[in-house]
């Protein structure tokens, strides 16, 4: 009974704070900013990878970003992304690529604003520090994608060597598609951990952010599955929005993901508040 009461208090606190702090509007802001940051990030990442000699990076980056999206959403958007990324950019340090990095960092800033509200903290760090940190996130993500790109190039070769020397491992190797999905999912988990720990003001322990991360991952899976089923059975986006249908579908999907992400932060904050209040009463 006590656990049920505790769960109810935590959920009421999280949902109430989400509503009072304009969580619905913040999710819209986060979704649009994420969509606006997506193309600049991929342009910057692909240009940097090409500058470093990783010409095959483009397809890997698209897989890492879109493999965890429902196919109905990912397919049309990823085609357009590939079209954009095939434009040749010979010089890394052009104004366009520098601006792409800046606009990509705006997506990081939107995450920061959402989490600061969710964790009920006031930002005291300077604008310069926050912008440099956001740009660092973009560069680190690019380097991480580049490392994964190299790994996926060598993965089939390593897999064949492993099977040749250890026959028992064959049933566990799976396909490259499976490995891409696993790696993309791992990138999401590591990204969630990084943004929850370092982006918002204040300090949090790893154990404090675990509930929200689990909620976000489960919610992402459930939300994307339900939205994909809705698109298959009931959607009229194509007839309503014609050529803009893929963009509208992506915006709605990102809005759902943004809601889940913000609620994950709210859940972490509510759990921490509950345990703090209980410690004061028992102390």
Residue runs with pLDDT of under 50 for 5 or more positions? none
Q: What portion of the residues fall into strands of 2 or more residues?
A: under 5%
Note the overall shape.
Answer: globular
Helix content: over 70%
Distinct helical segment count: 10
Walk me through this protein's architecture.
This protein is an all-alpha fold and 283 residues long. Helices cover 81% and strands 0% of the residues. It is built from 10 helices and no strands. The protein has helices at residues 2-20, 23-51, 57-66, 71-85, 95-118, 127-165, 176-198, 206-233, 237-241, 245-282.
Provide the descriptors you would attach to this structure in a database record:
about 80% helix, about 280 residues, mainly alpha, 10 helices, single chain
Task: Produce a short descriptive summary.
The protein is an all-alpha fold. It has helices at 2-20, 23-51, 57-66, 71-85, 95-118, 127-165, 176-198, 206-233, 237-241, 245-282.
SSE order and pairing:
Elements: H1 2-20, H2 23-51, H3 57-66, H4 71-85, H5 95-118, H6 127-165, H7 176-198, H8 206-233, H9 237-241, H10 245-282
